Amino acid sequence: MSAVSSTSETQDVINAQLMEIIREARGGTRKSKEMEAIGRFADSALTLKYQKNTLRTVRSLLQQIQCIRDTSDLSYIIGSLILRGIPTPLYVYAGPEDKNTNVWRLHFIPGFVGLPSEEYYKGKGPGGMNTLRSYKKLLKIVGEAFDIEEMNKVLEIEKRLSKYINSSLVYDPPVISQATLKRKYPAINWDSLLSGLQIDDRKKSKYVVDAPQFLAILNNMVAKLDLSAWKLLLSANILIYHLPIMEPPFDTYYFNFYRHQLRGDRAKPSNEYVLLDLAKKYLMIPLGIEYIKRHVPQGHKKEVRELVDKLIVSAKERISDTEWMDISTRKVAQEKVDGIILGILYPDISYKYKVPDLTSDDLAENLMRINISMSHWQMEDVKHKLTYKVWTNLIYNVNAHYYPNGNRLVIPAGIANWPYYCSKAPLGWNYGGLGGVIGHEMTHAFDVNGKEFDAKGEYADWWKDADDRMYGKISKDLVKLFNKSKYMGHPVNGKKTLSENIADLGGLAIALGGLEREIKRLRVDDMGRLEALRNFFIAYAATWREKERREKGLQALLTDVHAPAEMRVNLIVPHFQEWYDAFDVKPNHKLYITPDERIRIF
Ligand SMILES: [Zn+2]
Questions:
Q1: CA angle at residue 277 from 272 to 281, to 5 degrees?
Q2: CA dist., res. 590 & res. 572, Å (int)
Q3: Which end of the chain has fewer CB atoms surrounding its CB within 10 Å, N or C?
Q4: How much distance in Å is there from the Cα of 441 to the middle of ligand 1?
């Protein structure tokens, strides 16, 4: 473990429930097609003698790389690896256009490099040059085990790509035809790449280039880099992806570098835990279906829906009181709240997804089969426009998401659990717990990124210039506040974490507003109100309690857009008078902020 938190505690409980389902499926009780798939998958992962088969599958993938003769082969292999879910420098997914959410396209975005961010390649990440040396060593040792010499040479290529991996997506990206794709990025053989991806009607289609600068660099690399360098790079991608599921010592190499050195984990996870992690990701639909059957009570969805509805009312009220915003902007903002497409606990319609036939004796092969079927499912989905009704979020995961594109909010069943939510919790608790999370996600509709999209979730300019100026001005105070704070001796980046901090501040306001309305509706007296407020803030703080390893914490400062959990509570609650009322906080207390320094954005 690299951290313990409320999220991980809640997830542990759910993980145990999922593990029970897997054991049941392994034990032979396979009453549904879902259980059959889970059972076979688990057999392929946990039967030690089958680990050899994974090695065989990896070797055959590496052989395909060795057979690349020209850029057409190279482009085809990149497409076919992406289809199989194996990372490459390029990634392709199906999603809506920025300006028209009814039209779904294939998107090209930056894919994978072996280290978390650009800083690591410069030796400026946590652990400095030492981390870089370890990575180099890992590549060398693993490469040699598969007769690939000097695989560590990929470091230089990855370094060039790393600049674009985390930060090159543009707003309103170009939507272009295949002819334009070929003209602008001529070194990549697009016919081959798309056929590797098994995309049919490609002549008619248009594509979204979300990171034009990155694609230009990739095109350049296809043109200039010799094929032997490409072979090394793709081989490294294949090997790193499979390391955790390979037999010892490969899984240990993976753990030592990626989990221990980069994240501070102390103990290597058991094979069962590795299986669970994979099953959660790869069997998301069958496992999700079995999980709902057993662990999501009837009526739970309705309850959470009621909470969401109350928060929607509160959010609209907050917006109408947001004086720095032009009246007309406030009106559209309220429409945007009303327009949010909600996904609550689990999808309302059944997934039209067929689990592929799985083998009982080759995990790597199973991962590929599942990825291919999921890719096809998503492409089909593009045609049938089912995508907002079924979601690809893991319903048993403890988190929530807001998607500006499409104006969608997804609250998976996993997070509607203690300490976030409990049907029997005292007044205030659920508002400070799950309510805070939902308010946070709603506010993402208006953070620096979300505000670029309108009520339909389409890229549009609906703010007045004066709104933007005021927003920028108030946001600056929040940036300054976070810039001043330090975590593990290192500064927090106020600008990088701004959107999340806005969401925390706005989210707590929405949740608190919802609670105050509920207090009025229930005619709770003053003493009862203070108690509800205390429950509210204690629940909020409880959901963020966390203890993490230094390695993980430092990596997060560089790569995570969220501020450290501690700041998400201590730098947020002092902006609310209700917190002072609830705990009788006085000017001599540590977290006290004078009323005129308190920030209110929404
Ligand atoms: Zn967020």
A1: 140
A2: 14
A3: N
A4: 6
Distances (CA, A) of 39 to 287, 352, 517, 594: 11, 21, 49, 59
Q: Which CATH architecture has domain 3-289?
A: Orthogonal Bundle (1.10)
CA 495 to ligand 1 centroid distance, Å: 14
What span, in angstroms and rounded, lies between the C-alpha atoms of 547 and 537? 19
Gap from CA of 312 to ligand 1 centroid (Å)? 17
Rg (CA), the chain: 25
How far does residue 413's CA lie from ligand 1's centre (Å)?
17
CA 226, 232, 237, 238 dihedral sign is: positive
Model pLDDT for residues 260-291, shown as the tens digit of each residue = 999 888 899 999 999 999 999 999 999 999 99
CATH architecture of 297-347+391-597: 3-Layer(aba) Sandwich (3.40)
Spatial distance between the Cα atoms of 102 and 466, rounded to a whole number of angstroms: 31
Task: Compute the mean pLDDT over every residue in the chain, rounded to the nearest whole number.
Answer: 93
Gap between the terminal Cα atoms of the chain: 37
Using DSSP's 3-state secondary structure scheme, residue 166 falls into coil
Q: What does the alpha-carbon distance between residue 75 and residue 81 come to, in Å, rounded to a whole number?
A: 10
Query: What does the alpha-carbon distance between residue 549 and residue 4 come to, in Å, rounded to a whole number?
Result: 9
Question: Which amino acid appears at position 524 of this protein?
Answer: V
CA 362, 365, 369, 374: dihedral to nearest 10 degrees?
100
Ligand 1 geometric centre to CA of 444 (Å) = 7
Q: How far is 58 from 45, CA to CA, in rounded Å?
A: 15
How far apart (Å, rounded) are the C-alpha atoms in residues 345 and 544? 21
Domain ranges across the chain: 3-289, 297-347+391-597
Helices 284-295 & 6-26, crossing angle to 10 degrees?
A: 100
User: What are 180-194's pLDDT values in tens digits?
Assistant: 999 999 999 999 999
Return all residues near 428 (Cβ < 8 A) that are at least 6 apart: 515, 531, 532, 533, 534, 535, 536, 539
CA 564 – ligand 1 centroid, Å: 13
**Separation of 507 CA from ligand 1 center, angstroms?**
10
- Token output for 28: 């032979």
**What is this structure's pTM?**
0.89
pLDDT at 205 exceeding the cut of 90: no
